[in-house]
Amino acid sequence: MFLTVKLLLGRRCSVKVSEQESVATLKKLVSERLQVPEEQQHLLFRGQLLADDKRLSDYCIGPNAAINVIVRPPEETALMEAPQPQPLWHQLGQVLAKPFKPQDAEAVLQLLRQEQEQRLQRISLGDLEQLAQHFLAEEQADSQPERVSPRPGSTCIMQEREEKVEAKEQEEVATSADQ
């Protein structure tokens, strides 16, 4: 069977495998075709992360399926370059501790965590791809300002979608408050 393997930023290839092949074998093929080291690959099928020790048939992956590849940065480089800030939730807890009692601050923090988790679950791979392309375009514009110019009237799709979700949530809260 043939599978389409697609990187988050658009490169893709087709690979021929059997349903009994392991995910690790698929990673080797992807590494050869797309020049992405196996240890940097996260393979996703229908939003589910594929484990190296499983077979493609374990995930009901059939002919002509599309597999997404998310590339992780090399661990050594990422650890050296990235500063180690305090986690967001710890910092937010410190900010909330000033105006609130400890149990109130914890309750607000818990609600914020739940809301963030719900919003993250609504993000699709397509949304992530659009966001990555947006940031990539910005990065290219910063490095080559004379060659890249933004389209007039362009907007951030993610921001529009977020505003629609917030408006719908506010409408639902208002409706339930009226009842």
Automatic annotation (TrEMBL):
Pfam families: Tugs, ubiquitin. Its main location: cytoplasm. Keywords: Cytoplasm. Residues 159-171 have a biased composition (Basic and acidic residues). InterPro entries: Ubiquitin-like_dom (IPR000626), Ubiquitin-like_domsf (IPR029071), Ubiquitin_CS (IPR019954), Ubl4_C_TUGS (IPR041421), UBL4B (IPR043317). Residues 1-76 form the Ubiquitin-like domain. GO terms for cellular component: cytoplasm. Residues 137-179 are annotated as: Disordered. It is found in: Cytoplasm. This is Ubiquitin-like protein 4B. It comes from Tupaia chinensis. The lineage of its organism: Eukaryota, Metazoa, Chordata, Craniata, Vertebrata.
